[in-house]
Amino acid sequence: MLPSISLTQEMGLAVLLVAALVWLVGLGHMLRASRSRHPEPGAFEGLAVIPAQRGAAAHPMEAVELTEAEKEAFDGLVRRIPLS
Are 56 and 62 in contact (CB under 8 A)? Predict the structure, then answer.
């Protein structure tokens, strides 16, 4: 027992030391497991790859015909975009 700190502080210190010990043991286990595992060549465990976009003619539901008024409104919006 340390004479300069209270019992509550000693208990907190003990809990902190136990948590640090558990963390170190877990980290060592995780590092040891990652070293012993050899992934197959070409195996990718990251995010799924985003598929390539298809052309507008790929499916009729993916293309929308605009009316002349819609085309003019779109052109007006594009003209409003400030070019820096």
Answer: yes
